[in-house]
From TrEMBL, chain A:
Transmembrane segments: none annotated. InterPro entries: Ald_Oxase/Xan_DH_a/b (IPR000674), AldOxase/xan_DH_MoCoBD1 (IPR008274), AldOxase/xan_DH_MoCoBD2 (IPR046867), AldOxase/xan_DH_Mopterin-bd_sf (IPR037165), N-heterocyclic_Hydroxylase (IPR052516), OxRdtase_Mopterin-bd_su_IorB (IPR012368), TAT_signal (IPR006311). It comes from Xaviernesmea oryzae. One of its GO terms (molecular function) is oxidoreductase activity. This is Isoquinoline 1-oxidoreductase, beta subunit. Pfam families: MoCoBD_1, MoCoBD_2.
Automatic annotation (TrEMBL), chain B:
SUPFAM superfamilies: 2Fe-2S ferredoxin-like, CO dehydrogenase ISP C-domain like. The keyword Metal-binding applies. PANTHER family: BLR6218 PROTEIN (PTHR44379:SF2), OXIDOREDUCTASE WITH IRON-SULFUR SUBUNIT (PTHR44379). Pfam families: Fer2, Fer2_2. This is Isoquinoline 1-oxidoreductase, alpha subunit. It comes from Xaviernesmea oryzae. Transmembrane segments: none annotated. InterPro entries: 2Fe-2S-bd, 2Fe-2S-bd_dom_sf, 2Fe-2S_ferredoxin-like_sf, 2Fe-2S_ferredoxin-type, 2Fe2S_fd_BS, Beta-grasp_dom_sf, Diverse_Oxidoreductases. One of its GO terms (molecular function) is 2 iron, 2 sulfur cluster binding. Residues 1-76 form the 2Fe-2S ferredoxin-type domain. Keywords: 2Fe-2S, Iron, Iron-sulfur, Metal-binding, Oxidoreductase. The keyword Cytoplasm does not apply.
Length: 772, 154
């Protein structure tokens, strides 16, 4: 087991850490007195005993577990708190609370996402350097379904270390060897004498002891929490209406701002024709142009700010994008699929020779998906206070404190101010789905706060700005080709995707460096199908730039590529005259983990049992985020084309499971999210502008025709994988394949249906008539 | 000046007559349970009970509720802190994910069960039109049935 580097690391990195320590000294709460690179040493602050970077025990026995990952509904605060409580022998009850730490300690850095090495396995100089650099940068981000993979082991170690420190403190207090002591239910016990000491009594002494060099972890056989469903720690406040989301932050003397963005991305503010009129509206304190690109109205209340903003008459500069339509974007993508020299991501064997040598007809299909937006239920917002001394504090529902810090730097920079310190409070997120990785809203709030020093400014985007002026999932197309051998199985598989580079667009807005647009790994994920045994395989990509800002979007490339590839595998199966499940089983002959998951989903769904006329069943499987997921969708298509997804069955192998009910919830929710994507949602462009503006024209799944969902967890005994994103990944392909089974129609573009309004907040979905 | 009852307490509010009840609750009365999600009565995150009826407060002008009794999600909790049956069912079924929309669902379910103590799935579909982007609908359905059972056993 790798040891946490001790404070010796300070000798190397102390100078660089000085800035962090300064920030912490101003920020206050919980910074470790001994600056350790990984922050495992403790200190005492009044009644609070900080045992390490992840754990504080109060005198009354209340325990605060610091989880440096954003809770956006996925249940991560509960899962990681369970891991600490497990090692500490703490009851998992309301004495435990979870806080997102305000200090960017190196121990919290998300180096797993960058280095792709599990902490429990990582070793070597590259990891050592990577950890140092990312730790000092304060690279803390929640994404890529990685939080459990990144932190379950370090937080186990933190819990185990704290337990040993409590035992050592108990040993000193009771005058008996630590080996004679046990822990249970938040007490250190000496069985022989019947004496016991409450953690709250021992914590202050324990915190000042040196942490053990190599904490002993509890064997899995003794786990009483891990692997057993626990109630979420955040739900009581959420059902009482007491949960404070970013939008609910209320501070003394606060100002409120509403924003108007350019209808065409990239345009600048040319002139505000009626600024005086807007300034004269009730409660209005300021009308400000942000970075030349947006207009903010600042007022005493958000209602007043939004009312006044709706009166704004803004002239925007013309841009080249002003004529772009979705049809033109589609044509650009199709042209790119004919590109002479796409970027080659994977090339195994000789695809062209295998295709040329095949005697059966080539399967050749082109697929497409539209732009999408996230439409988190909590609209975008950020609250920033710039004090007179230049210190800055922010309250943001964000996936990344580093993003918030960068956003503050940018926003205050626009106002000509350099912060003397930054304190970053990450609030509960009302949904995120990748959207809240971006610094855009924070920068706006920081700029406005710098104009109104001493008063907090809360920026809230209206839903219309969120849907029509926000960030988007790429509009993408792919051409897939396969040559089948005499047995009907592919001898060659060739995938080419055309999409705007996700990483290039995100980095351009958020990072000081940019890896360039070609070969974007996020645009090709889901294309390689490495788990299928295919002798010749090629994956290529072509970046197709547009004026649209592309953001991370739940499951990124998988959200379109798995629709493409798993539809295509069905097309190959049908060409071979094979059952889609049997065909996949053969393709998975060298991938037992995937085969087990596929079989479990098929078994849940009763694959092969007869279905009535107009009904059909479709299946899809994918490996993503170190998990394997398979789903079967059952659909009914009526005479008039109305489609209902009746049931979706899902099986997932996420490796070792910490909180099973949370995994099941992510699968259920992911499936519903995926049904929206498959059948309903699209962002379209006209005159360079997004046409959609709210839930009436950006429909999402509601209760009435949502499918019933059944989920099974397959236990492979592997280390943990990701659970936040896989649930949505196979849904669209499973539904498209089910529609084909029901109707014989292959629909190769999303959304598969057109959403019709049939009453107030009621819709039905009807298959696209343009189907082939 | 508009007078109304909010969560059992008489309040008077001095504000624009056209200001939506949602923003009066959030900005003038510090009741942050009702959420802004769309502003056009599409998503239901802002739902409150107005004289017992589940209503989107984002499109309800404050002057239209003069003299009415308004109950927000906070007002469903009993004085001793006990959750309402619906809120308890929401915990028992572990419904919320991000939870931002859930106050509106809890209000809508409360009104449904008041009118229809043992709703069928079709009645649930008819009554519950809110949006949950996390996709908690299967659990919401189970929680409503659970609350109905708890109600019958009470």
């Amino acid at each position: 087991m790798p040891r946490f580097l001790s404070r010796r690391g300070f000798l190397i990195t102390g100078a660089a850490l000085g800035g962090t320590a300064l920030i912490a000294a101003v920020g206050g709460v919980g910074y470790l007195a001994t600056v350790d690179v990984d922050g495992l040493d403790g200190f005492v602050d009044g009644d609070r005993a900080v045992l390490n970077a992840f754990l504080t025990i109060q005198g009354d026995g209340r325990v605060v577990i610091q989880v440096p990952r954003t809770e956006m509904g996925q249940g991560i605060h509960t899962g990681l708190a369970m891991v600490v409580a497990e090692e500490l022998d703490l009851p998992f009850d309301d004495r435990i609370s979870v806080a997102f730490p305000t200090e960017p300690l190196p121990a919290y850095a998300n180096w797993f996402n960058v280095l792709q090495q599990r902490p429990e396995e990582a070793s070597g100089p590259a990891v050592w350097v990577g950890r140092r650099v990312l730790g000092l940068l304060g690279f803390i981000a929640t994404g890529a379904s990685a939080s459990t993979m990144a932190l379950w082991h370090p937080m186990r170690v933190a819990g185990a270390a704290a337990r040993q420190m409590l035992l050592a403190a108990g040993s000193a207090r009771l005058g008996v060897p630590a080996a004679q002591l046990t822990t249970a239910d938040g007490f250190v016990r000496h069985e022989a004498s019947g004496r016991s000491l409450f953690y709250g009594e021992l914590a202050r002494e324990a915190a000042l002891l040196p942490p053990p060099d190599d904490p002993v972890l509890k064997p899995a056989a003794d786990w009483r929490l891990i692997g057993k469903s626990q109630r979420r720690v955040d739900l009581p406040a959420k059902v009482r209406g007491e949960q404070v989301f970013g939008m609910d932050v209320v501070l003394p003397d606060m100002l409120h701002a509403s924003i108007r963005h350019a209808p065409v991305f990239g345009a600048r503010v040319s002139r505000i024709a009626n600024e005086a009129e807007v300034r004269a509206q009730p409660g209005v304190k300021d009308v400000a142009v942000i970075d030349g690109r947006q207009v903010a109205v600042v007022a005493d209340s958000w209602w007043q700010a939004e009312q006044a903003a709706s009166l704004l008459d803004i002239a925007w500069t013309q841009t080249e994008a002003a004529g772009v339509t979705s049809a033109e974007m589609s044509a650009r993508l199709k042209t790119a699929l004919g590109s002479a020299e796409p970027y080659e991501n994977i090339n195994e064997g000789d695809v062209e020779a295998a295709i040329a040598g095949s005697t059966s007809p080539m399967i050749d299909a082109t697929y497409e998906v539209p732009f999408l937006t996230h439409a988190c239920m909590e609209p975008m917002n950020a609250t920033v206070l710039v004090r007179q001394d230049g210190s800055v504090e922010a309250w943001v529902p964000s996936q990344s404190p580093l993003g918030v810090r960068t956003g503050i730097g940018r926003g205050t920079g626009w106002a000509g101010l350099e912060p003397t310190s930054i304190t970053c409070n990450i609030t509960m997120n009302g949904g995120a789905f990748g959207r809240r990785s971006d610094l855009d809203v924070t920068a706006q709030a920081a700029f406005l706060a710098a104009r109104h020093r001493g008063r907090p400014v809360k920026v809230i985007w209206s839903r219309e700005e969120d849907i029509g002026r926000g960030l988007y999932r790429s509009h993408a197309a792919a051409r897939l080709r396969a040559a089948l051998g005499p047995d009907g199985l592919p001898v060659a598989y060739d995938a080419l995707v055309a999409a705007q580079s996700i990483i290039h667009s995100v980095a351009g807005r958020n990072l000081p460096f940019n890896p360039g647009p070609d070969g974007d790994s996020l645009s090709v994920e889901g294309l390689d199908k490495l788990h299928y045994t295919i002798p010749n395989r090629r994956v290529r990509s072509q970046n197709v730039p547009s004026h649209m800002p592309i953001g991370f979007w739940r499951s990124n490339g998988f959200s379109f590529n798995t629709f493409f590839t798993e539809s295509f595998v069905d097309e190959c199966a049908l060409a071979a005259g094979a059952d889609p499940l049997a065909y996949r089983r053969t393709l998975l002959r060298d991938s037992p983990r995937h085969l087990a998951v596929l079989n479990r989903a098929a078994e849940l769904a009763g694959w092969g049992s007869p279905m009535a006329q107009g009904r059909g069943r479709g299946i899809a499987v994918e490996e993503c985020y170190r998990s394997v997921i398979a789903q079967v969708a059952e659909v009914t298509v009526a005479e008039d084309g109305e489609i209902t997804v009746d049931r979706v069955f899902g099986a997932i192998d996420v490796g070792m499971v910490i909180n099973p009910d949370a995994v099941i919830a992510q699968m259920e929710g992911g499936i519903i999210f995926g049904v929206t994507t498959a059948l309903m949602s699209a962002i379209t462009l006209d005159g360079g502008t997004v046409t959609e503006s709210n839930f009436h024209d950006f429909p999402v799944q509601r209760m009435a025709n949502a499918p019933a969902v059944e989920v099974a967890i397959v236990d492979s005994g592997l280390p943990p994988g990701g659970a936040g994103e896989p649930g949505i990944v196979p849904v669209a392909a499973a539904i498209a394949n089910a529609i084909h089974a029901a109707t014989g129609r292959r629909i190769r573009a999303l959304p598969l249906a057109v959403t019709e309004t049939v009453g107030e907040r009621r819709t039905r979905t009807v298959l696209r008539s343009a189907a082939t | 000046m508009v007078e109304l009852m909010v969560n059992g307490t008489r309040v008077s509010v001095e504000t624009d007559a056209g200001k939506p009840l949602l923003w009066v609750l959030r900005e003038d009365l510090d009741l942050l349970g009702p959420k802004y999600g769309c502003g056009v009565a599409q998503c239901g995150a802002c739902r409150v009970l107005i004289d017992g009826e589940s209503t989107p407060s984002c499109v309800t002008p404050i002057d239209s509720v003069a003299g009415a009794s308004v109950v927000t999600v906070e007002g469903l909790v009993q004085a001793d802190g006990t959750l309402s049956l619906v809120q308890q069912a929401w915990i028992d079924e572990q419904v919320p994910q991000c939870g931002f929309c859930q106050p509106g669902f809890i209000i809508a379910a409360t009104a449904l069960l008041e009118a229809t103590p043992q709703p069928t799935d079709a009645q649930i579909d008819e009554a519950i039109t809110n949006i949950c982007r996390c996709g908690t609908y299967p659990r919401i359905r189970r929680a409503i049935h659970r609350a109905a059972t708890m109600l019958a056993e009470r």
